[in-house]
Amino acid sequence: MSSLEINSCSYSQVMKLQLSPPLVEDSNSGLLGESVNAIEDKPKDVIRFTAEKLSVDEVSQLVISPVCGAVSLFVGTTRNNFEGKKVVSLEYEAYVPMAEAEVRKICGAVRQQWPVKNIAVCHRLGLVPVTEASVVIAVSSAHRAASLEAVKYIIDTLKGKVPIWKKELYEEETSSWKRNKECFWTKKD
């Protein structure tokens, strides 16, 4: 078993942290440590809608796997301008149960098309100031091509099918709900 020693200047003792889980005997299945690998083999989809600030590091950690050599990310941020107007923030609203269901369908479609391991789609709701992340998408896979293509598919499909509405708030104290040109219900035949 490996351990990591951390020496602290303010403490006279050495603290040892365990790096691998202890192996525990279970009378029915033998070593429980074996089940850790079984859990690791199961792909996961993480879908979150939150009013909290998004952390790119936290989202990327959700998809990391020792069997993967690639983690691809898309981070959509609030920019400070649109068509000559100064944007101070964006405001997002969503019908969360329907939005989650649509993102689940997108994850399923990704898994049908590419050999990916883990998927995380996190979208901010409420006010999002300039430079902060509105959406963070992370996908892990054995090789980069699958995760890169999956991330592009996810953001393009999310913008086109998921019921999320965006309002731009301008410096002049005006605002405008934005029509998402990618949404299927806004396209003309």
The CATH architecture of the domain at 44-170: Alpha-Beta Complex
Estimate the helix proportion, in percent.
Answer: 25-40%
What best-fitting shape do the alpha-carbon axes yield? elongated
Can you identify the CATH class of the domain at 44-170? Alpha Beta
Count of DSSP H/I helices: 4
Which spans have pLDDT < 50 for at least 5 consecutive residues? 1-36
Mean pLDDT: 82
The CATH topology of the domain at 44-170:
Aldehyde Oxidoreductase, domain 3
Q: Output the structural class.
A: alpha+beta
Percent strand equals 35-45%
Q: What is the CA–CA distance across the termini?
A: 64 Å
Give a short account of the largest sheet. Answer: 5 strands, antiparallel
Radius of gyration from CA coordinates? 21 Å
CATH homologous superfamily descriptor of the domain at 44-170: Molybdopterin biosynthesis MoaE subunit
Number of beta-strand segments: 13
Helices and strands, in order, run as: EEEEHEHEEEHEEEHEE
